[in-house]
Amino acid sequence: MGKKDEGGFLETVKTIVYALLLAGLFRTLFFQPFYIPSGSMKETLLIGDFLFVNKMAYGYSRYSCPFSICPIEGRLFASEPERGDIVVFRHPTNGTDYIKRLIAMPGDTVQMVDGRVVLNGDMLPHEPLGVFTETFEPQGGAGNTPRCSNSPVALGGACEKRAYRETLPNGVSYTVLDTANIYTDNTPTYTVPEGNYFFMGDNRDNSVDSRVAQRAGGVGFVPFENLLGRTSMVVFSSGGSSMFAIWSWRFDRFFEGLE
């Protein structure tokens, strides 16, 4: 190999390294891609939705960097989230990234009573919207089938869930789904500690969230530094087992804003 070939090879290597560094910097400071693997946020987010997390929304903590390597104590350029935000956060104990809706702020009290949210002593408005219907079939890469309020449902049949419009005190309104009466429909009254937040999935009977303590396999309260960012738009969506299955792309969800 001549000097010219060696020089061309080194330039190619440098270009790749610079591109990777820029991509890493962009991911750390601005937007992180996130793929929806489960149905815990239906109907707001579907399995196979692809979105970007705005990491500038709440400032930066050590979890903002890949592998949590940022030497940051607390949070830099901190900005308070709002009730109703759809937030990606790092689980306080198992290191997994979750996406849920922010329901309660530091100092709030929150309780579930017969599947209804009681926030600071007031039950949130809960308007019936009818039925959310989807096909009972394997979904996403994991191939899990959805839970249905009209079970049992044959493969390919209509899987139904009751849908409601829930509204927070700040006016943020969104759809929640109800499948059955389960243990998380009735909880003790929780008081959110300072510096922590309380999250729930919109698909209430299919969500591991703050209603269950970490020691019992849930999420519990989430510290502020664990918040990675906010999302407000679906960029891409695929209903198949792979995002490369073009025939399963949901074109109507491309660049769809989120409530």
Automatic annotation (TrEMBL):
GO terms for cellular component: membrane. It catalyses: Cleavage of hydrophobic, N-terminal signal or leader sequences from secreted and periplasmic proteins. InterPro entries: LexA/Signal_pep-like_sf, Pept_S26A_signal_pept_1, Pept_S26A_signal_pept_1_CS, Pept_S26A_signal_pept_1_Lys-AS, Peptidase_S26. Its EC number is 3.4.21.89. One of its GO terms (biological process) is signal peptide processing. PANTHER family: CHLOROPLAST PROCESSING PEPTIDASE, SIGNAL PEPTIDASE I. This is Signal peptidase I.
